[in-house]
Design a protein that fits this description.
Elements (H helix, E strand, L loop, with lengths): L1 H9 L3 H8 L1 H16 L16 H10 L3 E4 L11 H5 L2 H15 L2 E4 L4 H16 L2
Length: 132
């Protein structure tokens, strides 16, 4: 989980990074951690929703392997610990980010079921598209 690694490196929760240092500082750290994480093989990486906002992040993710857009209804998205989700307009964020998610992803997976079922869907898609 990229957000967990960001918290570990920063030594503070994401809301504190936003409040004390601003979104740019958070995005800079996010890009650094993502680039380092994507440089390693054999991983499943969960990014935060804003990772696609920077082209260099999209490039890093695409270099790593298949990219999946986990789609979920806005009404059920978790907001706790997510400063922009708590203070922003989710519909507007989706309007801006949706085309970026679509462009960055190899496939979209509806994520309104259990994590295990979602993982199984992704695995099936991966196997179908990679010859495994």
């Amino acid at each position: 989980d990229l957000d967990e690694e960001i918290v570990r490196r920063a030594g503070k929760p994401i809301p504190d990074i936003f409040r004390e240092e601003g979104e740019k500082a958070f995005r800079d750290l996010e890009s650094q951690v993502l680039a380092e994480t994507c440089a390693k093989d054999g991983q499943v990486i969960a990014t935060g929703g804003g990772a696609v906002l920077r082209p260099e992040n999209q490039t890093a993710m695409r270099r790593t392997g298949r990219v999946y857009w986990l789609r979920r209804d806005l009404n059920v998205l978790p907001k706790e610990g997510r400063p922009l989700s708590q203070s922003g307009n989710l519909a507007k964020m989706e309007q801006i980010r949706g085309p970026l998610y679509r462009a960055a992803a190899d496939a979209a997976v509806q994520n309104d079921i259990s994590p295990e079922e979602t993982a199984a869907k992704i695995w099936r898609n991966f196997c179908e598209n990679s010859g495994h």
